[in-house]
């Protein structure tokens, strides 16, 4: 499936469109959200606590991009996780991944730009005789530390290392979110999973409170790359990094109420992470079907939408009897889609918000007849979302373009 | 993945529309042998294609004992007699000796599965040669499909080389087996003069020393399985020329870029039509990809709704990708789904949906042997029968711009 995905990155270019094209068929939307502002705040807060330790804001070239650190014992599945979630590697092919020898840094351009650092498991960064790591460079702008524990292995050592890591970090960087992924749970029974989660939680909390650390920001997730749980866990992690998440959620909740949606998600299309949902209870099943629907749409788009049509084709379609440019023959310039499930005729709808985000919703049965009305409501919400990202986008531009932005 | 030689397309289609229409009445039965070493994945692939198993569900399957006979109804007017032959050596010997005539006579298609990870390649090939000999002896006309299976276990970089190497080996062995059979031919023919139809005279048979062989690299974990099975099915479908002609007229009438016709349960591509513009699509593997995508979507739906896997899961799907393209997939006849990919435009889209609905009667023959009155009018649908919601003169214009077929 992923065989051609690399070619998909430069999808929108319609190179043979020729001079008469008023604009490219698909264009890059401006709504790229990055979290510079939040990080600036974090940094300043840190600066108050221990001034000298904070990195000079001008030096790191990666400034402004939140960073996710993947750490854990060797062979716990860190590289597999990042390949599956961020590079769309089919889970079955992670068998062939080599062990990671050095810190693997990936930069991701999505609805927000962030970095994923994959640490080799065999190196203890706090206690390494050969090489001392620059702690500030690593943890200075961190968005979240993800600690991966192999649930099918003996995890006592992993838990001990995690504890010492938390203790190291807690002193200098108390705001780091620590997310523990209890990983590879696909082979385990439900009861056993919960037992492990309970056991790990207790071990960590006991140890931390023994050391006088109370209420450390540690969260636990049960994950596996063979189902949607890894994406859901990442969704939770990423949501914590989103400024004004509450307002996004309120917007979606409102939409669900007015249109009688069962559940609505705002997806990051590239990673299938959802960045917001309405306030009805969490429901893994509806996340799964929505996320698979995004997959279906991505696949169709790749096969039928990623290559340029000929000029001739376009001229014929814009000529008599239509006599209109193609752009004006369509109702919506972004992708829109709907599907009716056979049981109870529940529709699912998808609407692209911009290049990176898509709104996916499951509707209540029988609402297919009201699609036109629903479409209008969705239009309004999509407009609202676009404005939202316009506003939360950082005002100043980092780097050489700064001079342009200031006047 | 692996390039295979283009086998001669369906042989029986040369009779013209009249003969093809006469065929509509017949329900075709085809004997399909599924063979290969024990544990090579025969039953797994059968379950995935015809019983909607998920790839990971196939772990539950046990070994097949002797021959597992199943009748798969495909499109209403084709029944596949699927002989899933257990691959343990004792069974194999039995097929080749006591049951030889029973197993190998009247075979339409032999599907032979090789496990790429097998340790004893020589032995596998020896068994294969025996099977081929038996097949040539009893069913000379049978098509042979060799699936080199479990390719997912090979590193992606080397897959092509490994497959090419193995394919060459299989080809050579097949040619050898056939050649040997031809040398023995005179005695063989005498021995089975009762079994073999008399027209297979040594003089004509000696002309072609090869059998119709196609090789595929497959894995249950990706779309390659659909590619192989779609070509297996393709030649078996009766009235293929009628379906193709009617799809083409429909495609021209609604100005589509591509139309795919899927069988309902297996989601294998039964037939397809592509416009000249659609031919420029760089994704040559898109047909099996569509099968794979829609089938896994079906699984998702069945998981969500809690309905049985084989049940119908979705009825209407539409997708408009801004000013790039639009597409819709919908339930077409009782046994088929249709997927239409077309240029953007709301008016064009809506009229195409109506026209596809209006075209259903022309394809009703797919559901059973009964010939509906409309399709007797011939392969060509006159444009006056197409619903008039397109602007006037539109359909005529479309056919001017399109290639004459």
From TrEMBL, chain A:
It holds the Pfam family Gtr1_RagA. Keywords: GTP-binding, Hydrolase, Membrane, Nucleotide-binding. GO terms for cellular component: endomembrane system; fungal-type vacuole membrane; Gtr1-Gtr2 GTPase complex; nucleus. Residues 1-12 have a biased composition (Acidic residues). GTPase involved in activation of the TORC1 signaling pathway, which promotes growth and represses autophagy in nutrient-rich conditions. SUPFAM superfamilies: P-loop containing nucleoside triphosphate hydrolases (SSF52540). This is GTP-binding protein. It catalyses: GTP + H2O = GDP + phosphate + H(+). It is found in: Endomembrane system. GO terms for biological process: cellular response to starvation; negative regulation of autophagy; positive regulation of TORC1 signaling.
UniProtKB/TrEMBL annotation, chain B:
Its main location: cytoplasm. It comes from the Eukaryota. One of its GO terms (biological process) is negative regulation of autophagy. Residues 377-405 are annotated as: Disordered. Gene3D superfamilies: 3.30.450.190, P-loop containing nucleotide triphosphate hydrolases. The keyword Nucleotide-binding applies. It is found in: Cytoplasm. InterPro entries: Gtr1_RagA, P-loop_NTPase, RagA/B. One of its GO terms (cellular component) is fungal-type vacuole membrane. GO terms for molecular function: GTP binding; GTPase activity. Keywords: Cytoplasm, GTP-binding, Nucleotide-binding. Component of the GSE complex. Belongs to the GTR/RAG GTP-binding protein family. GTPase involved in activation of the TORC1 signaling pathway, which promotes growth and represses autophagy in nutrient-rich conditions. This is GTP-binding protein. It comes from Achaetomium macrosporum.
């Amino acid at each position: 499936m992923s065989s051609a995905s690399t070619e998909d990155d430069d999808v929108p270019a319609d190179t043979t469109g020729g001079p008469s094209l008023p604009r490219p068929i698909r264009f890059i939307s401006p709504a790229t959200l990055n979290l510079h502002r939040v990080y600036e705040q974090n940094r300043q807060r840190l600066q108050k606590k221990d001034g000298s330790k904070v990195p000079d804001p001008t030096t790191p070239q990666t400034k402004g991009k939140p960073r996710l650190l993947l750490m854990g014992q060797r062979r716990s599945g860190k590289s597999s996780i990042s390949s599956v979630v961020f590079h769309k590697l089919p889970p079955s092919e992670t068998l062939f991944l080599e062990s990671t020898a050095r810190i693997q840094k990936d930069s991701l351009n999505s609805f927000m730009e962030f970095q994923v650092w994959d640490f080799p498991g065999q190196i203890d960064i706090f206690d390494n005789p050969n090489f001392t790591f620059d702690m500030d460079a690593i943890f200075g702008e961190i968005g979240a530390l993800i600690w991966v524990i192999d649930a099918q292995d003996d995890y006592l050592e992993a838990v001990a290392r995690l504890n010492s890591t938390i203790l190291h970090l807690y002193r200098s960087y108390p705001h780091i979110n620590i997310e523990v992924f209890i990983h590879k749970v696909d082979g385990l029974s439900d009861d056993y999973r919960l037992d492990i989660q309970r056991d790990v939680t207790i071990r960590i909390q006991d140890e931390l409170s023994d050391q006088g650390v109370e209420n450390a920001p540690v969260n636990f997730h049960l994950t596996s790359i063979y189902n949607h749980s890894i994406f859901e866990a990442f969704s939770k992690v990423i949501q914590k990094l989103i400024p004004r998440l509450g307002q996004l959620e309120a917007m979606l909740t409102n939409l669900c109420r007015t249109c009688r949606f069962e559940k609505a998600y705002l997806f990051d299309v590239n990673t299938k992470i959802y960045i917001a949902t309405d306030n009805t209870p969490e429901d893994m099943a509806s996340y799964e079907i929505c996320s698979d629907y995004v997959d279906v749409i991505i696949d169709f788009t790749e096969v039928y939408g990623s290559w340029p049509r000929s000029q001739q084709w376009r001229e014929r379609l814009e000529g008599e009897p239509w006599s209109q440019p193609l752009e004006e023959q369509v109702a919506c310039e972004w992708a829109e889609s709907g599907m009716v499930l056979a049981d109870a005729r529940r529709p699912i709808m998808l609407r692209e918000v911009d290049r990176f985000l898509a709104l996916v919703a499951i509707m209540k049965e029988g609402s297919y007849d009201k699609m036109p009305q629903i479409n209008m409501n969705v239009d309004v919400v999509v407009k609202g979302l676009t404005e939202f990202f316009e506003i939360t986008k950082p005002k100043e531009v980092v780097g050489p373009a700064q001079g342009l932005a200031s006047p | 993945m692996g390039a295979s030689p283009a086998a001669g397309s369906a042989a029986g289609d040369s009779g013209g529309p009249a003969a093809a229409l006469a065929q509509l009445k017949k329900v075709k039965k085809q004997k399909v042998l599924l063979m290969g070493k024990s544990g090579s994945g025969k039953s797994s692939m059968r379950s995935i294609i015809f019983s909607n198993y998920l790839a990971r569900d196939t772990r539950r399957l046990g070994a097949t004992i002797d021959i597992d006979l199943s009748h798969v109804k495909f499109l209403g007017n084709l029944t596949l007699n699927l002989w899933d032959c257990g691959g343990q050596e004792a069974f194999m010997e039995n097929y080749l000796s006591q049951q030889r005539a029973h197993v190998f006579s009247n075979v339409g298609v032999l599907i032979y599965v090789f496990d790429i990870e097998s340790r004893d390649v020589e032995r596998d090939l020896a068994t294969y040669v025996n099977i081929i000999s038996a097949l040539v002896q009893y069913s000379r006309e049978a098509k042979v499909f060799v699936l080199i299976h479990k390719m997912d276990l090979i590193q992606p970089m080397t897959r092509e080389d490994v497959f090419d190497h193995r394919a060459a080996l299989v080809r050579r062995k097949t040619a050898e087996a056939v050649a040997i059979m031809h040398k023995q031919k005179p005695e063989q023919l005498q021995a089975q003069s009762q079994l073999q139809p008399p027209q297979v005279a040594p003089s004509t048979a000696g002309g072609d020393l090869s059998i119709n062989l196609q090789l595929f690299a497959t894995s249950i974990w990706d779309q390659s399985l659909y590619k192989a099975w779609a070509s297996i099915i393709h030649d078996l479908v009766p009235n293929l020329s009628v379906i193709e002609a009617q799809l083409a007229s429909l495609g021209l009438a609604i100005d589509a870029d591509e139309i795919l016709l899927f069988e309902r349960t297996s989601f294998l591509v039964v037939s397809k039509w592509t416009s000249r513009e659609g031919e420029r699509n760089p994704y040559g593997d898109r047909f099996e990809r569509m099968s794979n995508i829609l089938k896994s979507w079906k699984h998702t739906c069945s998981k969500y709704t809690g309905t049985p896997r084989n049940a119908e899961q979705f009825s209407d799907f539409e997708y408009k990708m801004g000013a790039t393209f639009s597409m819709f997939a919908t339930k077409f006849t009782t046994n088929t789904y249709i997927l239409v990919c077309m240029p953007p435009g709301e008016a064009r889209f809506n009229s195409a949906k109506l026209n596809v609905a209006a075209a259903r009667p022309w394809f009703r023959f797919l559901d059973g042997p009964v010939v509906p009155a409309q399709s007797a009018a011939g392969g060509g649908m006159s444009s006056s029968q197409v619903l008039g919601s397109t602007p006037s003169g539109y359909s005529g214009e479309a056919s001017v711009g399109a290639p004459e077929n």
